[in-house]
Amino acid sequence: DTEHPFSIASSAEKPELLEFTIKELGKFTASIKQLKPGQKVYVDGAYGSFSCDRYPQAKALVLLAGGIGITPMMSMLRTLAHRGEKRPLTLIYANRDWESITFREELERLQDSLTLKVVHVLEKPPANWDGEKGYINQAILERHLPKSDKPNKIEIFICGPQPMMNAVEQGLSNLGIPFGDYHSEQFSLV
Prior knowledge:
This protein is of the alpha/beta class. Helices cover 26% and strands 17% of the residues. It contains five helices and six strands. The chain has a six-stranded parallel β-sheet, with helices on both faces. β1, α2 and β2 (89-95) form a beta-alpha-beta unit. The protein starts with 26 loop residues before the first helix and ends in a 5-residue tail after the last strand.
C-alpha cells in the first residue's frame, strides 16, 4: 500500500473530531471524497511536532502558508480560538487568486475571536486588488512581520509548496530572524 500523508486541520481542543483538508492531486485524493460517514478507514500517526504548543514563551506567532499549506495553520488557529488565545497572530497566506483561497470565510470569522491579522498574497489578483501581489517574498515579510529584538520572542511556522518555503526561509534568514525561530512542515513524509 502507498502512504498518503495529510495534515490535520481540526482543533486539538476537539479530540473527538479528526479533520483533514485534502487537495485533489491524483487518483487517491480524487477518490477520497467518495468515502461515506461511518465507513472504516485506517489512520496512522500523527507524526511530527509542527505545533505552536512547543513555544509557550513566544509573545507572538506568525503563520506563513501557501495554498493547501493552510491546513496545519487552520489546526493551530482553531485550537488557539478554542483556548481563547490573546497573543497577536499574523497569517500571511499566498494563493493563485481570490477564488482559490481555502477557508476564506472561516479566516474572516477567526479575526473576530482572535487577535489575528490576515494578509492575503495573490499571484493573479482581481483588477481592484490593493493587497499584496505575487509571491511571499522578503519585502512582504518585512512589511508584515511583527518587530522582534530578541530570539524566541516570535515563532514563525511555514507550510506550502517547496519553492515557497525555500524563498520564505531565505527571506527570513536575510532579515536576521534566528533559524530556531522558524519551523517548516513538509508536504511529504521525511
